[in-house]
Design brief:
There is one protein chain. The protein is of the alpha/beta class and 263 residues long. The chain has a single domain (9-190, 228-254), classed as 3-Layer(aba) Sandwich (Rossmann fold). The chain is built from eight helices and seven strands; from the N terminus they run βαβαβαβαβαβαααβ. β4 (88-91), α4 (106-134) and β5 (137-142) form a beta-alpha-beta unit. α1 crosses α8 (229-239), α4 (106-134) packs parallel to α5 (155-175) and α6 crosses α7 (210-219). The longest helix has 29 residues, at 106-134. Bound molecules: NADP nicotinamide-adenine-dinucleotide phosphate (NAP). Residues 14, 16-20, 38-40, 43, 64-67, 92-95, 115, 142, 144, 187, 189-190, 192-195 line the site of NADP nicotinamide-adenine-dinucleotide phosphate.
Length: 263
């Protein structure tokens, strides 16, 4: 399939590791000019080296804390510089803290809002003029399978990611006249540091071993394994590419069949 990504500028947020990094790798394989971002230069430099080894191509990168509006402005300007615009935005973020309603005060709720929802709004605001000017754009908002079935001990994620789905659906309508398609991905359980740390947190809370928690999680996944981040990356590439010409406003779960809810 021709994804039509050669020469396109793709900005992937929170991409020094995990799902963001994997998505960046898949866009690189398709010939896109890819920009990585994250809070630490060292992690980003290591990611660039890994991705170069894996794909033979070198992404650009810039340090950016996505909870800071000014950082996002500078990041989008940096990404747009060589080709005069950003064609594809993959909105992604670190996960908010695990816990239940009674664990969190306003400060934590506000931080989770800024990280999980407001950063997406701000990044979209920055790339929108570029996409409008070109009459073409793809926005992929990464969320979680929790948008269909809430996850125990993750009240912040369960709450704010639904806002991203409302945003995605609304923007699909508002941006269609500009040639911009907007979709969301809901990952289930991919083998990344985030999932390992959630398993540790739940094990501690329940007085179980991490192995017991992981085994119970695997038991709920019909495909019988955690996802490989590259499998997530391939979905991001399709939704964020020129091969996707008619899908907008959708949320696609990538969860090995784990979610039982009917949309
Ligand atoms: N893995 C899964 O199966 C799964 C399932 C459902 C939902 N999710 C969600 O998907 C997102 C990515 O998951 P993941 O598994 O890839 O997590 P991860 O391995 O923990 O990676 C998260 C990345 O986000 C970056 N980051 C964190 N806070 C940031 C900030 N303020 N500004 C810029 N970058 C920031 C981190 O780098 P720095 O710390 O260097 O900034 C890191 O590279 C998370 O929100 C997670 O909750 C993941």
């Amino acid at each position: 399939m021709d994804y039509g990504l050669g020469g396109k500028t793709v900005l992937v947020l929170a991409s020094g590791s995990g799902l963001g990094k994997a998505a960046a790798g898949e866009f690189l394989k398709e010939g896109a000019d890819v920009v990585l971002s994250g809070r630490g230069a060292e992690k980003l430099e290591a990611a660039v080296a890994d991705l170069e080894k894996a794909t033979g191509r070198i992404p650009r990168f810039r340090v950016c804390d996505i909870t800071k509006a000014e950082d996002l402005k500078r990041l989008v300007a940096f990404a747009a510089e060589p080709e005069g615009g950003v064609d594809v935005l993959v909105n992604n973020a670190g996960g908010p803290p695990a816990g239940t309603f009674e664990s969190f005060d306003d400060t934590v709720w506000t931080g989770a809002f800024e990280l999980t929802l407001l950063s997406y709004v701000r990044a979209i605001r920055e790339v929108l003029p570029h996409m409008k000017k070109r009459g073409w754009g793809r926005i992929v908002n990464s969320t979680s399978s929790s948008v269909r079935e809430v996850i125990e001990n993750l009240i912040l994620s369960n709450t704010f990611r639904l806002g991203v789905i409302g945003l995605t659906k609304s923007l699909a309508v508002e941006f269609a006249p500009y040639g911009i398609l907007v979709n969301a991905i809901g990952p289930g359980r991919f083998d990344t540091e985030r999932i390992r740390s959630l398993d540790r947190s739940l094990a501690e809370k329940k007085g179980l071993s991490v192995e017991q928690v992981s085994a119970a999680a695997l038991g709920r996944i019909p495909l019988g394994r955690y996802g490989d981040p590259e499998e997530y990356g391939r979905l991001a590439v399709f939704l964020g590419s020129g091969a996707n010409t008619y899908i907008t406003g959708q949320t696609v779960l990538a969860d090995g069949g784990m979610t039982r809810a009917v949309p």
